[in-house]
Amino acid sequence: MADKHLLWESPETDDAVEAVCNGDIEKVANCIYNKFEKVLNLPEVASIKRIMLEAGALNAGMSGSGPTVFGIFKDKGMAEAAPAPWRNTVTRCLCAVRSQRAVRLWISACIKMEKTVHTQTEMFERTVFLMKSLRKPLFSKKKTYLSVLEKSLLLGLLLSFLLTMTGFSGQCEAIENQVFRFHVLANSDSQEDQALKLKVRDRVLEYSEGLFQNAQTREEAEALAAAHLQELCQAAQDEVYRQGYDYPVKAEITSMFFDTREYETVTLPAGCYDALRITIGEAEGHNWWCVMFPPMCLPAAEESQELNDVLSESQMEVVENGDKYQVKFFAVELFEKVKNWFQDR
């Protein structure tokens, strides 16, 4: 005897249950087709029924408890081939039967219908019921048909992610507040201007080597840079002249937005960082950046205060495991870009 739950989680009529138990194919078709017509608009009914019939189904219908389409086939080969028209439909959800309950499986917005299930009575031995959810896309402007359970699961997943991101975002903000960055912007992207940018970089780093050696915090490093800003600018300008160019150079301490960036084995999250910014000429070329404090890009960096002397253990876990936190880094970067965009309005 077939388990009634294979077709209905909550059968609405005794006739429907009796038809399943007795293996009455035509009666099952008539029962579920009634539900099929009630739940869907007529154009959808006609379209899906046509596809099922063209695939060789005796009839098509829908479960009494939800939008699951059934194609009733006597030939198992035809039944297994029938899902092909929907296989690449990304706004549908896969529905499969496990044990005695219909278990809905939905993953983001993906989803391919590939599985079939059949009852176990002698008469239904070669009859396969194709199951396919007709729920609307999760974020469609049209009315959606997500169940209360699915909405609750979705909300729970969203809240869990937000709670996780709250802690991660706090770690990223703490990293921003303890790092002082160095940024050099070339006059243009020509080969000559890019080479000049690197020469200016080397000259400023050489001058800075002794300047930041005793700094213990970002604030101290930033204060030293501000106090010696004119000398830093002059060092950059002298290098430009020495290389045979007359581009003007500008130096400033500023707070600026950086995307998520990798520096050797370290990944710094996106956000607004305080930085020493050197611009050369029109400043329309690609930039070069590094971390001025802790002095990771200075010639004597290995003898200076290292990053793990400044950041906490949990913060070091973040910056040293970029691959592990790719999704979270992306989420933080997206949030920071939106925030930065509004702040610039």
From TrEMBL:
For this UniProt record, the keywords arranged alphabetically read as follows: Transferase
Q: Does the keyword Transferase apply?
A: yes
Q: Does the keyword Transferase apply?
A: yes
Q: Name one GO molecular function term.
A: transferase activity
Ranges for domain GHMP kinase C-terminal: 16-88
Show the InterPro entries listed in the entry.
GHMP_kinase_C_dom, GHMP_kinase_C_sf, Spore_II_R
Q: What is this protein called?
A: Stage II sporulation protein R
Segments traversing the membrane: none
**Stored Pfam families:** GHMP_kinases_C, Spore_II_R
